[in-house]
């Protein structure tokens, strides 16, 4: 019984071998190796690009955070300066009411947009 099963499996395998051409199999194997090589090359290029992008991001993020801190500091300084200017202006108006003739000229002194208000 076991011998009959072996003979049958040998016959089936021989029939499968005749269905597929050996040259076609070799051609497929060659194409698979070519594709594997291309994929490995692509993987290497992407790995190098990822390393490069990571280094660039590290450099830029440090610069960006430094510039963000600088801008926040500059904004705080400018807010303080304009606060002082407003208090000086109110003191001048209290002492010399005619120093600024009307409200229309007050807009000429501070024409910067108020960035805190939503538009």
Protein described:
- By secondary structure, the chain is mainly alpha-helical.
- 83% of the residues lie in helices and 0% in strands.
- The protein has 3 helices and no strands.
- The protein is rod-shaped.
- The protein starts with a helix and ends in a 10-residue tail after the last helix.
- The mean pLDDT is 87.
- InterPro entries: KXD1-like, KxDL_dom.
- Belongs to the KXD1 family.
Tell me the layout of helices and strands.
Blueprint: H1 2-19, H2 22-95, H3 103-109
Region (Disordered): 98-119
Biased composition (Basic and acidic residues): 108-119
GO cellular component, one term: BORC complex
Brief write-up:
This protein has 119 residues and is mainly alpha-helical. 83% of the residues lie in helices and 0% in strands.
């Amino acid at each position: 019984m076991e011998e009959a099963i072996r003979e049958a499996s040998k016959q089936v395998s021989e029939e499968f071998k005749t269905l597929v051409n050996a040259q076609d199999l070799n051609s497929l194997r060659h194409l698979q190796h070519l594709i594997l090589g291309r994929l490995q090359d692509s993987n290497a290029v992407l790995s190098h690009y990822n390393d490069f992008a990571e280094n660039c991001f590290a450099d830029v993020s440090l610069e960006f955070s430094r510039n963000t801190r600088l801008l926040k500091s500059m904004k705080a300084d400018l807010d303080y300066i304009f606060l002082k200017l407003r208090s000086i202006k109110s003191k001048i108006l209290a002492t010399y009411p005619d120093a600024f003739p009307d409200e229309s000229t007050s807009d000429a002194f501070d024409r910067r947009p108020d960035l805190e208000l939503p538009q």
